[in-house]
Amino acid sequence: MNFSQLRDQRANGFRRLRFEPALEAHYRKARDEGIRSRARPVSASALTLFLVYTLLDSLMLPPAIARDTIAVRLMVTCPVIIGVWWLSYRDIRNDHFVKIYALAYLVGGLSVVGIIGLARLENHPLPYEGILLMLMFGYFVMGIPFRTVSGASLLVIVAYLWVEHATGSGAHQLMINGFFIGTANIIGMVGSWLSEHRQRAHFLDRQMLNASKQQAEQENHRKTRLITVASHDLRQPLNVISLILENLTADGLPVEQQSLVSRLKSSVTHFNNLLASVLDISRIQEGMISPEPTRLCTWQVIRQVSETFSEQVQRPGAQLVIHKPATGSGVFADPQLLHRVLQNLVTNALEHSDATRIDLRAHQDNGKLCFEVQDDGRGIDDGSLEQIFTPFFRNSQRQRSCPGLGLGLAIVHELTGMMEGHCNVSSSPGQGACFRVFLPATPAPQTTESVSGAAVPPSAHSPSLVVVEDHDEARHWTCETLASWGYSVRGVASAEQAITRWGASSNAILVSDVHLPEMSGDALYDRLFARKSVRGGILMTADTTIPQGYDSERRLWVLHKPLIAMRLRAAITQLDRLAD
Question: What is the rounded end-to-end Cα distance, in angstroms, of the chain?
Fold first, then answer.
């Protein structure tokens, strides 16, 4: 049953101790499993009780009567109890076991009636407390369903009254005993009804909780799927637009149109940053981000951030100055998350501070590696400092001139915390701002690879490039961009075409989309590299859950879409240089 059906069941109530058929079957299954588990300690306590009564019979009753009562307890009642305990461990259906369990209760109650009857035949007044004990045992201890235990208890009471009458009890005494036994039975029935009603209410609460949890998990799965699809489907056209703009610039447009192209590229970059922020905050809130920290070279981290903004800082405006940290300086962090943190801080300084200079540096600080992004801009007022890392917070004075969502710094705060670090900011109005990110320090890894340095123009010995992309427009503009840089480029639409057209010992570099119809770009690269059809590779993906970076053992880069032209070109240059 779904949550709405369970809610309707609760609203309708269950005074008759019955649910809707589908839920009733589920309840009985769970109840029967519980009764089976409960039967084991109940059997142990009942067996102990009857053995104690056996001892009392031998001490307190006349030998002739004790012989008969002890025989009933040891030959009838105790074997039945032992049988129930034994069956609770056997492989029989739970509903069948519950019936046997209830029958055992009835047999136990009738055996007590029989013992009272034997004593009456010998003219020995045996009290009916044993009957009361059996009634309470059935109603409150054994956990038998209300209707079943009420019917069994009624049979025991009728049998007791018949025995009393058959053994010569007077009408007055019979009425007194019947009144007390009947009163006890009514109290037991009320208690049993309340107990089962409470159990059903708890069961219904658990089912509603489970249904709510399942509904929430399904909703989270849909959100996760939406975020993943949105990330891929929105980044893909952005990649095409970025490649078209790159070609427009490379084609040598008239001077008066260069500013228009520059503005377009700036708008695309801004839109990509907004999209990344929305997707990042959604992934954080849905718990989709799981840091994978590793040892990183601090200098390479800083250089990669600088390369990301290489085109932006070439335009009129702020200057990004990077400072080389101490030799051997390293940081223990997730490379993708750390890059995103520093990228957001630099973007914030470029777009929102009115700065003319931005400094990016790193240094050791009490066992932590401190990254600093400092600008000489307008600064932050005291009221805004307290809320600067709050999601969707934006300075009201700058909302119109600096469009944005107010998520960049919130993402910095969240991602830094995920990597067991912290961040802060110091600023004064008119004196600029300095953002600091503290993460665990570690010695830098001894072998590191990164895209760095200026891209080298292709030579006659440069490799040819094989572009594998099933999206026609993306493939066309990727090939056009690479060709404009002077490379020999061939493009194909499928992994099968790439496998059949390029043989062994090819002086080629693979540039492939990760998601291809026949096989993944990763599998395609492994196959071509194994037979020496390519000397290195670059995988492009719009799925940001796939880590971006370089695998030196495989000579393979993974770059996120939309591609940063300078980063792509530097990656090709590096693969070309390593193969020499």
Answer: 66
